[in-house]
């Protein structure tokens, strides 16, 4: 039987406490808003998210598989490298994930934002549309998405035809 190493044990406990706190304290959106990683140009981005995102998980399966991998591989890695080097590797991996995420943002997403602005959409409008959580509430169904987009379009003085130009341009 493998005995759990101290750093792995502490990381497992921290991750589980943050996950439980996120769901049990009743305001999941507050935790995600403060601790999850956001795009640097977002109003929700805070500097501490570079570190805090390492302890956030999107659901039970995400937590389960990450903690299983930490348990299975972390114990062996910590035994070989020692506590200090293992913790350095753990944090470096999280910071590397931030670096890669931000590179993808700037290579893939930022040019799309510039393109939208060149088509006449204001940055405030783009930010408002991005606040729509299109992955939840069956938003991919066209009528639901349109019903959410129309008030935003109206408030900024845009029409669905202008949005159609954008969609055709990016296909």
Care to give the gist of this entry?
The chain has 171 residues and is an all-alpha fold.
Largest sheet at a glance?
none
Put simply, the count of helices is 8
CATH architecture of the largest domain: Up-down Bundle
Provide the number of structural domains.
2
CATH class of the largest domain: Mainly Alpha
Task: Find the CATH topology of the largest domain.
Answer: Rhomboid-like fold
Order of helices and strands: HHHHHHHH
User: How big is the Rg?
Assistant: 21 Å
N/C terminus separation = 55 Å
Number of strands: 0
Summed over residues and divided by their number, the pLDDT gives a mean of 84
Q: How large is the share of residues in beta strands?
A: under 5%
- The coarse overall form would be elongated
Which superfamily, in CATH terms, is the homologous superfamily of the largest domain? Rhomboid-like
What does this structure look like?
This protein is an all-alpha fold and 171 residues long. It folds into 2 domains: 1-102, Rhomboid-like fold, CATH 1.20.1540; 119-171, no CATH class. It has 8 helices and no strands.
List the helices and strands and how they pair.
Elements: H1 6-24, H2 28-35, H3 49-52, H4 60-81, H5 83-118, H6 123-130, H7 142-156, H8 160-169
Main features:
8 helices, single chain, Rhomboid-like fold, elongated, mainly alpha
């Amino acid at each position: 039987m493998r005995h759990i190493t101290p750093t792995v044990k502490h990381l497992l406990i921290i991750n589980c406490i943050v996950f439980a706190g996120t769901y049990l304290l009743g305001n999941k959106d507050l935790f995600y808003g403060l601790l999850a990683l956001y795009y640097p140009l977002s109003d929700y981005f805070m500097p501490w998210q570079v570190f805090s995102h390492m302890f956030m998980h999107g659901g039970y399966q995400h937590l389960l598989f990450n903690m299983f991998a930490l348990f299975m591989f972390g114990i062996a890695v910590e035994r070989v490298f020692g506590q200090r080097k293992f913790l350095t590797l753990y944090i470096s991996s999280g910071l590397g994930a931030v670096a890669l995420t931000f590179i993808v943002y700037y290579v893939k997403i930022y040019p799309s934002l510039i393109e939208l602005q060149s088509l006449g959409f204001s940055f405030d409008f783009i930010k408002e549309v991005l606040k729509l959580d299109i992955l939840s509430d069956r938003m991919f169904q066209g009528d639901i998405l349109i019903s959410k987009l129309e008030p935003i379009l109206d408030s900024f003085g845009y029409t669905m035809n202008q949005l159609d130009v954008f969609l055709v341009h990016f296909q």
